[in-house]
From TrEMBL:
<dbReference type="GO" id="GO:0016747">
    <property type="term" value="F:acyltransferase activity, transferring groups other than amino-acyl groups"/>
</dbReference>
<dbReference type="InterPro" id="IPR016181">
    <property type="entry name" value="Acyl_CoA_acyltransferase"/>
</dbReference>
<keyword id="KW-0808">Transferase</keyword>
<keyword id="KW-0012">Acyltransferase</keyword>
<feature type="domain" description="N-acetyltransferase">
    <location>
        <begin position="4"/>
        <end position="152"/>
    </location>
</feature>
<protein>
    <submittedName>
        <fullName>GNAT family N-acetyltransferase</fullName>
    </submittedName>
</protein>
<dbReference type="InterPro" id="IPR000182">
    <property type="entry name" value="GNAT_dom"/>
</dbReference>
<dbReference type="Pfam" id="PF00583">
    <property type="entry name" value="Acetyltransf_1"/>
</dbReference>
<dbReference type="InterPro" id="IPR050832">
    <property type="entry name" value="Bact_Acetyltransf"/>
</dbReference>
């Protein structure tokens, strides 16, 4: 059994998971194509950060949504430890992040991921994300893919 809870970006478990993610991405892409965001620089108002823990309370995954204040958010730092993959933790984590984003008046979530992260792209597609052009602050990059998901069908409903 796994649990998903909110966590601080300064928590050692989050720091360790993000360090593992950074090592993984640094092996796949050159520095200019690695859009690594230091979550500790963001305020709690603008950040949704969640951690997945196993039965022993070991942190095995994390993910974040950065809220932009305009009803959109950006999915960042999604990572599941390789030894815990294949158990639908990614889908569960994305659903939890999206639910919290929606409760904080976010109607659309966007993301940037790399072309070599096939499992991540499949996860996002299974969860309803669709390809889109680059969005600010990104520019076109042959090693990047950009995706988006509307959390509500009618954005006017997000204001309710």
């Amino acid at each position: 059994m796994y649990s998903i809870t909110s966590e601080s970006s300064h928590h050692p478990d989050i720091i360790n998971l993000i360090a593992a993610l950074d090592r993984y991405q640094s092996e796949l892409y050159p520095a200019e194509s690695n859009h690594l965001l230091d979550l500790s620089e963001l305020t709690e108002e603008n950040l949704i950060l969640m951690v997945i823990r196993d039965q022993q309370l070991t942190a095995v995954g994390c993910g974040a949504v950065v809220l932009n204040g305009d009803g959109t958010g950006e999915m960042k730092r999604v990572y599941i430890d390789p030894t815990h993959r294949g158990q639908h933790l990614g889908e569960t984590l994305l659903a939890a992040l999206e639910d919290e984003a929606l409760s904080r008046h976010c109607h659309t979530v966007r993301l940037e991921t790399g072309i070599k992260q096939h499992a991540a792209v499949r996860l996002y597609e299974r969860c309803g994300y669709e390809m889109r052009p680059p969005f600010a602050p990104y520019t076109a990059d042959p090693l990047s893919l950009f995706m988006e998901k509307a959390l509500v069908v009618d954005v006017r409903l997000a204001a309710l």
